[in-house]
Amino acid sequence: MRERRWRPSGPLDVKTTLAPHRRGAGDPAWQATPDGAIWRTSRTPEGPGTLRVGADARRGEVVGQAWGPGAGWMLETLPRLLGADDPVADFALLLEGLPSGGYALVRELASRHGGLRLSATSRVFEALVPAVLEQKVVGREAFRAWRWLLRAYGEPAPGPAPAGMRVFPEPEVWRRVPSWDWHRAGAEAVRARTIVNAALHAAKLEAAAPADADRLLRALPGVGVWTSAEVRQRAHGDADAVSVGDYHLPSLVGWSLTGGRTDDAGMLELLAPYRGHRYRVTRLLELGGRRPPARGPRMPARDYRAF
């Protein structure tokens, strides 16, 4: 076991900051334990690793403990994972420059969730696979596929990780997943092909600068605006990556900021004053915004295993 202590420069809510990397209940790569620690696994450039993130409240420090060949890399990048590169100070200045009326909710949420930081894993393909699995399906369907694939093809997490944790497979492993196992996982051929093709370009995606990420991601067949944004939010901590095309997000933004529903175009118009931090604002609204009343049937969870 290797350990690193790090003192953040301001308030930090570790669980809220790391929550976007959790892919549903029972995620084999992300677990919270009763002692308040967050456990993550990752396929680092140096190999598989397990990271436990806890807090030393008395000293105001975050304590990272890591195991496996990737332990050193995970501890080296721990500050970035916890938002050390997040331009949150720029967001505070942006809010100060906005008129007093009409922006009260975002100001209030920013104050209430002052420990929120935008996390960056620096692992693009690791963020891309679950994002593709979440394309055009309800969350529980995508999370089920993610769990099945990691349990079937991920290796056991190094160290004393909670039972059942797995490490994200290498790109070559994703390329070899047979069609019948994609079917067993509940992922249809279109999403499977997108992931297999992306695995061919994984090294290029990892090596690219964040400024080039959107262009390279969207050059892949099956990867559009929504998927690219979801990846950049998590891998690069992109504060402005808006998930255009999301099923729920426009309604959340519209209802929170105006009291009415809207579409993608209306959402972007409402978020325009926050340019540079539009993803951050949607994250704040997810934490404390107002959702429209439910009307009509929920989007059903399909089970491709029965087809």
From TrEMBL:
Keywords from the UniProt entry: DNA damage, DNA repair
GO molecular function: alkylated DNA binding; DNA-3-methyladenine glycosylase activity; DNA-7-methylguanine glycosylase activity
Cellular component, GO, one term: protein-DNA complex
Signal peptide positions (record): none
Protein name according to UniProt: 3-methyladenine DNA glycosylase/8-oxoguanine DNA glycosylase
Keyword Lipoprotein: no
Superkingdom of this protein's organism: Bacteria
Organism: Sphaerisporangium krabiense
Family annotation (Gene3D superfamilies): Hypothetical protein, domain 2 (1.10.340.30)
Disordered: annotated span: 1-35
GO biological process, one term: DNA alkylation repair
